[in-house]
Amino acid sequence: MPYVPNSDRDRDAMLRAVGVSSVEDLLAEIPEDLRFRGDLDVPGPLSELELERHMARLAALNRSLDDVLSFDGAGIYDQAIPAAVRHVCGMPQFSTAYTPYQAEASQGTLQAIYEYQTLIARLTGMDVANASMYDGATAAAEAVLMGFGVTRKRRVAVPRSVHPAVREVLATFVAASGAEVVDVPLAGGVTDVGALEDALEEGTVALVGHPNFFGLLEPVTGISQAVERKKAWLVASVDPLSLALLEPPGSYGAEVAVGEGQCLGSPAAYGGPLLGFMAARRRHIRRMPGRIIGATADTEGRRGYVMTLQTREQHIRREKATSNICTNQGLVALATTVYLSLLGKDGLRELASHVAARSHYAADALSRVDGVRLRFDGPFFREFVVELPVDAARVQSELRTAGIWPGVSLSRWFDDMPNSLLVAVSERHSREEIDTLASAIGAVTERRGAE
Amino acid sequence: MSESGRDRETVVEPTIFELSSPGRRGFDLPPLDVPEIDPAEAFGRENVRSAAAELPELSEPDVVRHFTRLAEMNYHIDRGIYPLGSCTMKYNPKIHEELAGRSGFARLHPEAPVESVQGALALMYHLARALAEISGMDEVSLQPAAGAAGELAGMLITRAYHTDRGNPRSKVIVPDSAHGTNPASLTLAGYEPVQIVSGPDGRIDLEALRAAVDDETAAVMVTNPNTLGVFETQIADVIEIVHAAGGLVYLDGANLNAQMGLVRPGEIGFDLMHFNLHKTFSTPHGGGGPGSGPVGVKAFLADYLPKPVVVRDEARSTGVEYLLDHDRPRSIGRIHAAYGNFLVMVKAYAYILRLGPSGLRKVSENAVLNANYLQALLAPHYELPHKGYCQHEFVLSADRQKRQGVRALDVAKMLLDLGAHAPTVYFPLIVSEALMIEPTETESRESLDAFVAAMAAIAEASDSDPESVRAAPRTTPVGRLDEARAARELDVVWEKM
Q1: Cα–Cα distance for residue pair A176/A179, rounded to 1 Å
Q2: What parts of chain A have a pLDDT lower than 50?
Q3: Which one of A65, B73, B294, B306 is least enclosed by Cβ atoms within 10 Å?
Q4: Domain ranges of chain A
Q5: Do B288 and A328 touch (CB under 8 A)?
Q6: Residues with Cβ within 8 Å of residue B387, at least 6 apart in sequence
Q7: Which of B42, B52, B120 sits opposite A379 (nearest CB)?
Q8: A335 within 8 A of A321, measured Cβ to Cβ
Q9: Fold of domain B361-483
């Protein structure tokens, strides 16, 4: 038994101390007809060596991003992670601690989250931030529920340019509340501002993605004016890397800013753990879900940190809590804190500039391929949609044999986009690799033309 | 256990913002081999950020030292006992981190073609099967990212089930000993909580339950063993009463560590439940996540599970064995942006494989033994509201110490001085001055004895010198913190003075 220290001798001594002769005596309260008396049909036990081999075999059945040239994105981005991020997150003082309920013995975790909150607030241009949510999708859904609480209306308008997974999770979260979810049509891949304004009523929550699912910048100034005219309530779901270069939600009237923080220091990890971040105007802090860390002082005036405003939370307020969230993504928030600390003000801006430059180079390179064009004209940050002369799924499968994943096909979510590919570029992609993608797509479309 | 005798003055750590020095950075990039872009041209002048986000500027050594100093202020399970009741803080196997860090798991994109992630999907499929086997449920979805998300999924499944039968129903019953997430989750799913008081022995009172159940009862949420650490001996009657009224019986699986290989909830009549992989399966807790809260159901509820669902096609009719099934019309929908906290699943699967059927049973047996050993040795020093053997945890009361002016909170704080982490305090709500203790199976007898000695010393000090207990902690990086001030003078982001 690798993880249980008790030897038979220990067990005997302990049983004697308790005054019983076997563990079965301790379980005697469980009615016999409720006991499971068989052997569980699960695999194992394996020694550590056998376990390593078994897991290595499973891992080898996967083709990782190390093995292929990938342009998949759609909200999960394969950015490089400095070794120091993994090092800090691997410290057992952080990874094997519990939620910081005993503040005096958890100052490391608490101060790190306080720093995380500050970084997120500064990045988003908002006043306050919480300690993290599960992912960008649940963060967006919870932000909409927050809006419902403030406006006392149960109505949300969502443009079709918001990430499909966010829209799906939102639908799951509001299904029981009887809320009305209004789809807002697009114009040129971005929110049709006129249609949005028509959809808004006083107190309607508007959820906008910026950059949106297609990588495009939304007309946030127009959106913000429409929201203000209709006395609606704006939630912005943003790509945090873009905020190094783009005006933050705090500058265009968002009440809450949320987003997916995975790209800031965490691997793609087959989609989890991710990091939902949430920042808001100070006036909404008492309606925020989840943990919030605050600074205070100890009995001798020394600065220290505690979980604060806990009367919003489930362990105090139970059914009147602002959310049911308890365990969040603490260690992922720590990764982001370390990541942003390493990059700093100039580093993050330089990274964002490189990512944008490389994606613009890729968009140019791909649109020079015969028969390929950019699907939308508007400005984009790191990701763009190309329209192919053939089915996108077919291009994907032909390129796969060459170890190239050219991006995400949009046909699963959009029936009217069978030939569209969403291409994401990061600082990992060299000019040569981008050229390789362009010529590989060119070869497929040429073959197709010859058929 | 000894006092660390640390000098507090030396451990105050400035914020990362105060450590910032202009021009430093801990990061670099490969040279840009494509043309630069002009942000104003590429994004439109009105979209370009006018004032840069004020992120701190530090070198890599500055950053690593800052976080190392912060780390040193934390108590953690690698250092010693962490007996938080209901939290199952057990030792975390080191192999878990190595396995989850493999690029064949960590560097997979969720939109990768299924044929390129057969190992990941196989792992998820077989982990779900193992959890179903352990729990006696029929189907398991790994998608919920934490226990509370699993509860929400469970309550939405409950709602979908009743809705299909013509009436979603309006109420969910929770005992007063329940975790706070239970009423919060059912409310989020559109239900109204009905709280029932526990019987004198801390168990569900069947009369109170009968009086509360009616044809608007969608479900009852039960924690078993309950938060007092006792098995709900009349659980068969509870289930029968709720089923007779057409309701479902939900298990909060927070306490599964007492049951592996001993009791299978699905077999004894529970309809659905959630698991906490970061507790029972030691994945670890991460200082507050990431966790993983799979939801398990009996076959008649399987259609409602979150989508997509990982399915196996042994015939490989589409060329692959493991698939993601998005075509689930009765599903409650997505509850996560992707498929859940995959790397946490890797660790939980490794844990199950390493232990196997006999090891999992031994985990639960030793968790029960360790708890009973502690309970027996601590009973002379503190009040024990529920007599009798416990399961994996038990609840003491500091009522006796309170008469000397020492509260449960003071006991907790002094434990920090004596080299242990504190138990959960003031929960469950039905015990006054509650100290809820869950040692787990990974503590040795010596570790338990040392904890008993510390608790006994505190009980003794409560009589002889109560002020010394109220003044704890003395050796932690900071003394007792003013929570009221934190809430009153909100300071949740750092600002330059």
Answers
A1: 8
A2: none
A3: A65
A4: 69-79+345-450, 83-339
A5: yes
A6: none
A7: B42
A8: no
A9: Aspartate Aminotransferase, domain 1 (3.90.1150)
Could you say which residues from 35 to 54 on chain B have a Cβ atom under 8 Å away from some Cβ of chain A?
35-37, 39, 42-44, 46-50, 52-54
Spatial contact of A328 and A135, defined as CB atoms under 8 Å apart: no
Identify the CA nearest to A273 among candidates B188, B117, B277, B303: B277
Of B147, B333, B421, the CB nearest to A105: B421
Which residues, other chains included, contact B445 with Cβ-Cβ below 8 Å and sequence gap of 6+? Answer: A5, A6, A10, A13, A14, B373
Cα dihedral across residues B131, B136, B137, B138: positive or negative: positive
Is the CATH number 3.20.20.70 carried by domain A69-79+345-450? Answer: no
- The answer to whether A69-79+345-450 and A83-339 have equal CATH topology is no
Interface of B with A in 357-376 (CB under 8 A): 357-363, 365-366, 368-370, 372-373, 376
Hey, what are B214's tokens?
């009616």
Q: What's the CATH class of domain B96-352?
A: alpha beta
Q: Is the pLDDT of residue B475 over 60?
A: yes
Q: What is the pLDDT of residue A450?
A: 65
**Position B9 pLDDT exceeds 70:** no
How many Cα atoms occupy the beta-carbon half-sphere of A125 within 13 Å? 20
Cis omega before residue A249 (within 30°)? Answer: no
What average pLDDT does the structure give for chain B? 95
Instruction: Provide the ipTM.
Output: 0.97
What's the pLDDT tens digit per position in A257-296? 999 999 999 999 999 999 999 999 999 999 999 999 999 9
pLDDT score of B3 more than 60: no
Residue B160: in which H helix or E strand, if any?
helix B147-164
Mind listing the pLDDT tens digit for each residue in B387-417?
A: 899 999 999 999 999 999 999 999 999 999 9
Give the up-direction half-sphere exposure of residue B339: CA atoms within 13 A in the CB hemisphere: 30
- The tens digit of pLDDT for each residue in A21-68 reads 999 999 999 999 999 999 999 999 999 999 999 999 999 999 999 999
With tokens 């860090």, the residue in question is B101
CA angle centred on B413, ends B407 and B417, rounded to 5°: 140
How is chain B split among helix, strand and coil, in percent rounded to 5?
Answer: 40, 10, 50
Residues B301-316 have a mean pLDDT of: 97
- Give the residue carrying structure tokens 């040692």: B439
The pLDDT of residue B5 is above 80: no
- Note the CATH architecture for domain A83-339: 3-Layer(aba) Sandwich (3.40)
Contact A347/A414 with Cβ under 8 angstroms? no
Which residue of B188, B424, B438 to mutate against A (max A Cβ within 10 Å)? B188
